[in-house]
């Protein structure tokens, strides 16, 4: 399995002082389940759909006045650009999370990794392996 690949869209970022409504709308517009919370170039945390559901809706907070800093998950768990798909998936499984922040060697934000894309990559790899095995099995050996 190869290293993680990031899409061509920059990751969605929100500020810690943004309202939950603003962050939720931004996530909805981008069709993503999480945003990285940044202050300048520093990653402070992650805000996810689950954070909104558990820490705002279920807690009875007003999303128009609640701030991202109040509900975000911090610190954000992160991986480097050279992390393998298997390592990233294992980290998500170990921590029961669906998103990882991707940073470069200087700890600058490069992307957000969603579990579904890791699963797609793992499934593609398995399909390639099955195809290779089927080709091997179906090939006639010496003497036909």
Compile the SSE list and pairings.
Blueprint: E1 13-14, H1 20-30, E2 34-39, E3 42-48, H2 49-57, H3 68-71, E4 78-80, H4 85-95, E5 99-103, E6 109-114, H5 115-138
Parallel strand pairs: 1-2, 4-5
Antiparallel strand pairs: 2-3, 5-6
Helix pairs in contact: 4-5
Describe this structure in words.
- The chain is elongated, with a radius of gyration of 19 Å.
- The protein has one domain (13-138): CBS-domain (Roll).
- It has five helices and six strands.
- By secondary structure, it is of the alpha/beta class.
- The chain has a three-stranded mixed sheet with strand order 1-2-3. Strands 4-5-6 form a three-stranded mixed sheet.
- Helix 4 (85-95) packs across helix 5.
- The model has no long low-confidence stretch (mean pLDDT 88).
- The longest helix has 24 residues, at 115-138.
Query: H/E series, N to C?
Result: EHEEHHEHEEH
Number of helices: 5
Determine the structural class based on helices, strands and strand pairing. Answer: alpha/beta
Q: Could you tell me the strand content as a percent range?
A: 15-25%
Tell me the radius of gyration.
Answer: 19 Å
Which residue ranges are poorly predicted, with pLDDT under 50 across at least 5 consecutive positions? none
Any idea of the CATH topology? CBS-domain
Rounded to the nearest angstrom, the distance between the terminal CA atoms is 34 Å
Total count of domains: 1
Average pLDDT taken over every residue: 88
Q: What's the β-strand tally?
A: 6
Strand order of the largest sheet: 1-2-3
Morphology: elongated
